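Title: Prediction job returns without error message
Component: structure pipeline
Severity: low
Priority: P3
Assignee: unassigned

Description:
Job completed but the reporter wants confirmation the result is attached to the right record. Sequence as submitted:
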Amino acid sequence: MARESTNSVLSLPDQRLVAALQWDGRLTAERAAHALGLSPATVRRRLHALGADGTVRVVVSPVARPRNGGSAGALFLRIRVLRGKLDTIVAALAAREDIPFIDITTSGDEIFAVARTEPGSRDQLVFRQLPSTQAVTSLESATILHVFRLTSEWRHQVLTAAEREALGPGAPAVGAAAATSPGPYGVDTDALEQALIDALTPDARLSAVALAERTGHPESTVRRRLAHLAAEGRLVTQVLVDPRRLGLPIEAKFLLQVAPDHLAAAGQALADHPAVHGAFATSGPSNLHAAAYFPDLATLYTFLSHDLVGLGITHVETAVVSHAAKRTPMPVRPVPSG
């Protein structure tokens, strides 16, 4: 049998398994089978196949640790480059640890990127390195002021309400944008907890048995500490999968101008939309940035001409992504304390 194309759309049962993992990355085969009406053997076989060829990876997302309740520092960068120099600039940016996201748009000379930085700092990349690069023709930067929706919170809409309920509260509901808070992160992480987080970061589905072998601690202790980390919101999983495999080949970014008295409501409306996997209030003339997945251009047009109506948006600029050059899990928001 010919090997399935790496660009082909996954079967609906496989898409449903991916969606279940989005609700709980450490979901057992038995629990997934019960929720989705499958046999445990089928779930084990399909999960193994999806992971073995790299189609799906489940990782642990780092948790943002804001200072004094503020947001962790990050900039949206929009970079235009000379024709023929795109690959060179993208490669240089991708090599940097402080650049977790890089997208290339269909214009062929435009890069969207996210840069981690200290809030309010004179970032060297923005102030010196990129402006002094002859291949860069223009540079725009915007500071992220507030998070309405993170990619790690996006859910593929192929499960019924009953199935989501059966999977349990393992993930935030769509639109549940918690306010940034220091949460429980004043508590120090001890050596064992840090070892567990480090081991699970590249593969969040490692079993308690495997983790016990790696850490040298009893399996019962490992299970107890994993439950403690999850309860405190310090073990947040994220599913990494190419959206094209989910039947969503179109990704678009939106730079929106919104009147201040509509900003919060518009941002929340975008966060509630099932297509939107990122929504942020930012500095700059476009004070609301968003990103979304679509099955086709007609659906993208409907989003622009219908779904954005009535949100107080005075201007919108749309950029279609041609290639995601780098996608590193971004820090997730901590669970608010109290």
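Comment from assignee: result matches the submitted record. The chain is about 35% helix and 25% strand.
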